[in-house]
Amino acid sequence: MAIKGLTTYAAAALLAGQAAALHPWGPWLGFQSPGVTRSARDGVVAARSGGSPIKAYNLSVPVDHFHNESQYEPHSDDFFHLRYWLDTTHYREGGPVIVLHSGEFTGEGRLPFLEHGIVPVLAEATGGIGLVLEHRYYGTSYPVPNTTVENLRFLTTEQALADTAYFAQHVQFPGLEHLNLTAPGTPYILYGGSYAGAFVALTRKVYPDVYWGAISSSGVTAAVDEFWQYFEAARRFAPGDCSPTLQKLTHIIDSMLFDDDLARADEIKDLFGLKELYHDEFASVLSGGISGLQNTNWDPEEDFAEYGTYCATITSDALLFAGTAYLRPAVQRIVSFAGYGAESESLTARMLNYIGYVKNGVRQDKKNCEGKSLRECYSARFAEDSTDLSASGQRSWLYQTCRQWGYFVTGAGVPSDQLPMVSRALTYDYATIRCRNQLNITTPPDVDSINKLGGFNFSYPRVALIDGAQDPWRAATPHAIGLPDRESTTTEPFMLIDWGVHHWDENGLKDKVEGLPPKQVVEAQQKEVEFVKAWLKEFEREQKRGLGKQKVGEL
C-alpha cells in the first residue's frame, strides 16, 4: 500500500487516520502497505487488458471453515471462487508448487513477481509450478455480495489460512489434470511479503502437513496495536541530516500546537495553509513525506524518488520556495519560541522549505478535492466509504487491522524522552477513528489472536525470516532492533538484507541491467534457492522413509 508523489497528501492524511498498513493505500496501510510497487500496479493494468501471458483460474472453497465457532454465526454452507494465476513454464515432473500469496491486495498486483520476480527464480531452479494465490475479500475472491459489517465476519486470518490449506489439498491445475499435484504428496512452498509474509509463516505453522516450507519476507509476524515504532527506521536511517532536522521541526510545531495560548496553534497551522484542520488532522498531513521510506527500492523503476526529494528539501539551508520568503519573520519567532534560537538561521530556512513543500503538495491535491472543504479533503473524519465490492479492498484491510492486526501509527506513543518524527498530535484516537465511524468497532484489535502463534519470537522449521535492515516494518518482525540475533540455518534461515527496505528480494527485472539487482539482493535470492533445494531434498527423504504426517496446529 504506498503513497506516491506530492499529490498524496490527501491520501496520507486520510490513511494516517487508519491503520499504518502494509498496503497500497497507505502504511496508513494510509500510509503504506507493504507498498504496492509500480510494477505491481502495472501488473493490474496488464492483467485487466489481457497483456499478461499468465492466466487466471478459480477454485471453489468453503465460505466458512469453522462451523463450531460462534463468531461466524450465522454460519454458511456456501462456497466461493478463490482466484489464482498459474505459470507451468518451468515445471518438471516431481517439482514443487511455489505459491506466492497476494496478501492484502488484489492478486493482479502481484503478477510481476510471477512473471519476473522471486517466483520464476525459485520455479526455474527447482522445476516447479509457480502461482499467485489471492486472499479472501480482495480482488475477485469475495465470499459475499458486499462488505457490510455483518458480511465481513468471515474475514479473519483463521478463515484465510484455512482457504490456503484447502487450496493445496484440492486444486487440479489446468493442463495438468492427469497429475495429482495436491499436498501433502507434492511439496508446496509459500512465499509472501509484508502482511503476506506473516501470513505464509502462520500458514506453515498452523498447517505443517500441507505446506512443506515458507519464505516470509518482511513478514510482520507481530501484530501491534499502537505502532509508533513505524517511524523508527526513518529516525535511524533517513539520509543525511533528514532525521534530526525533522525531529527539531516537529518539536517546534508541537511547541505551538500544545501551548496554553491557543492562538499559537492557529498560527502554526496557518503558516502551512491548514488552519481549518483539527490538530490531529494537521499532524496526519505533515506525516506524509517521511512515510515514503517504505517505498524506496533498488529498482529505479520501483524507487519512490519523492522520499529523497522530501529529505533534501527540509534539510536545505537555501530558500527553495520563493513564495515562503515573506514568512521568514514569523518563522524566526516560532523557532526561537521553541528554544532553538541558537539554530535560528538554519532551522528557519528549513521550516520555510517544509512549509513550501507541504503547500505545494496541497495545491496539487486541489484537483482531487474539487467541491470539498479542506477538512473534507484531508480528514479521516470525512473519509468516504463503500460496501460495494468494486471499492472494498481498502475496507477489507481496514477491517483486518481494526479486528486483529492493529498497526495504528501515532506520534503520541513515542517515549517522552525521545523527539518524535511526527507530531504528538497524531493520536491513537484519531488513528482508529475509521474503525469506529465506518465499521462500528469500538474495542482494540485482538492482537493476541495473532501473537499467540509467535509474534516477535516466531520460529518454525522450514520457515525463512528475511527482512530489510532499513524497513519501517522491521519493527513488527523477529528482526526488530533490540531483539536477540539468531543463527541462520538451512532449517530456519534468518537473514537481514543490508541497506534493504520492504521485501526487496521479491521483485526482479524484465530485462538484464548491469549492476542490478544489487549484490545483497542477488545473494539473498541465491540463498533462498539453496535452502529451498535443501528443503526439497529433505521432502524426498521423508517420502522415501514414509514418515507419518505432522499434526495440524490450531489458530
Automatic annotation (TrEMBL):
One GO biological process term: proteolysis
Keywords assigned: Glycoprotein, Hydrolase, Protease, Signal
Extent of the signal sequence: 1-21
Recorded GO MF terms: dipeptidyl-peptidase activity; serine-type exopeptidase activity
Family the entry assigns: Belongs to the peptidase S28 family.
Annotated protein name in UniProt: Putative serine protease EDA2
